[in-house]
Every structure is written in structure tokens, then in C-alpha cells.
Amino acid sequence: MLYEVRTYTLRPGTTAEFEERFAKRLPLREKHSKLGAFWHTEFGPLNQVIHVYAYDDLGHRTRVRTAMAQDTAMQQLPGGGDLIVAQEAENGVTEIVELGVTAVVGDVFVHQAP
User: Fold this and answer.
1) CATH number, residue 9
2) Between the CA of residue 61 and those of 9, 10, 26, 34, 94, what are the distances in Å?
3) Is the residue at 107 inside a domain?
4) Number of neighbours of residue 109 by Cβ within 10 angstroms
């Protein structure tokens, strides 16, 4: 199982608008893959939203991203690109043997069940 974790830093004061747009697009997005988590910051680094999507493997992620790019219904709804000032992804390789978790370099994290 792969987990893609994305962190977006938004223009100040636009978190509510980003979340509203995200909510409207979510049913269309979930036709392709399910949302694993979504949250926003309220202290520390402000104006950030983080979301996580799970994929079966890298091939599944590629197929989902391709299908979303061709999804005309999704394209008709505004995304949040105009509200984003920075996108961040964690890079590194981590293995937690007890949980059977492995993270891949880049913004895709791999979970292997024990």
C-alpha cells in the first residue's frame, strides 16, 4: 500500500475557501482513489493543508493520476491551485519493522502489512 502525503501552504486567509473547493471536488476525486486523511494547521506553520491518499502500488497511483487528468467533470470545478503558494513533500526512506512500514523517496509512502 502506498500513501501520498501532500502539504500545501496557502495564501493567508484562504484555508476556508480551499477546504470548500476540496469538499466539492472530493466525491469526483474519490471515484479514482479514497482519501486517507485531511487536516489543516491551526498553530505552528499556519495556512497549511495536508492530505493523504492511499494507492495499491505505484502503478495504481499512475493510473489514478492519468484518469484524473482526463476527468472532465473534475476539470469543471475549480481546484485550489490559485490559492497555493508552496507545495511540500517529505523526502526520505524510512523502515519501521514493527509496523511493517516503508517510505519511498519522494512524496509517496509505502505501507507493507506485517
Assistant:
1) 3.30.70.100
2) 23, 25, 17, 11, 20
3) no
4) 21
